[in-house]
Specification:
Elements: H1 2-30, H2 37-48, E1 53-56, H3 63-73, E2 78-82, H4 89-93, E3 94-101, E4 104-111, E5 118-122, H5 129-141, E6 143-146, E7 149-152, E8 158-163, H6 176-179, E9 184-187, H7 193-204, H8 217-229, H9 234-246, E10 261-263, H10 267-283, H11 291-302, E11 307-308, H12 310-314, H13 319-330
Parallel strand pairs: 1-8, 1-9, 2-5, 5-8
Antiparallel strand pairs: 3-4, 6-7, 10-11
Amino acid sequence: MNDTVAESTSAAAHVERAAQTLAKVREAIARTIFGQDAVIEQTLVTLLAGGHGLLIGVPGLAKTKLVDTLGTVLGLDSKRIQFTPDLMPTDIIGSEVLEEDGGKRSFRFIAGPVFTQLLMADEINRASPRTQSALLQSMQERHVTVAGQRYDLPKPFHVLATQNPLEQEGTYPLPEAQLDRFLLQIDIDYPDKESERKMLAATTFGEEEKPVAVCSAQELMMAQQIVRHIPVGEKVVDSILRLVRAARPGEEGAKDFRDQIAWGPGPRASQAFMLAVRARALLEGRLAPSSDDVEALAQPILRHRMALTFPARAEGLTVPAVIERLCRSHL
């Protein structure tokens, strides 16, 4: 009995320490990124859950700056790749070059920009499917293979990819199976008036405040381990299962939405929920997630894992609107 109490106390202390560090991380990011509290929260949830995020927003909403700031504040080595139609897989993962030394020739592997801890894939939908697949394979397997030789990626390894929802000409939309590899789809909207006022004062008068490191890669990985050990109550698990299964058109619980949903989320969505609700609980300093976390994360977890039927789109329905109705019906 005493051992159980001691373990519980120790776990609570670990959660409290991690939550204090994460509070400093959020504060440091908010000093540079204005009016995007929900985006900051969802991005940190993605990293704490050990996943990758897809950032979608029009130009000028600080997507690049957010990733740069995250890299600095979290103490991560970060790199950026600008995706273009002529980008090749070797430009991402690296390639072998032939070298001559003392009359002997040999191949040497030169690592590409994917060998980093935080990678920004800027406008990922502008590269060819072949190049997209090279990155997505690295995301899933956490290593690359060149000429039969395996090269492991650094730890931690996270990809934050961006897409511009306005200009679709000359792009290669990510297939549904590849979208499913992203833990969260994070939609970035315009900041409110007061936040934009603060941004104008902070970025156009004098020297702009530079982000500083308040965390390390080791601390982030420790927080990720804590996330995986946070208990999830049966009530929360039931909420996740009800919501995910109701979003599938062939399920019994989805009969009210059968004519609206063309295809729905697979088991990877349930796994994403289980990790993300824990990460959100840790971010807020709680020892366990609640059904409120499920509702708060329903949109970023489900909206890129669902599609509506043609009649539903013709009636003006959208995926976010259907998800909102699903939450009201099943949570």
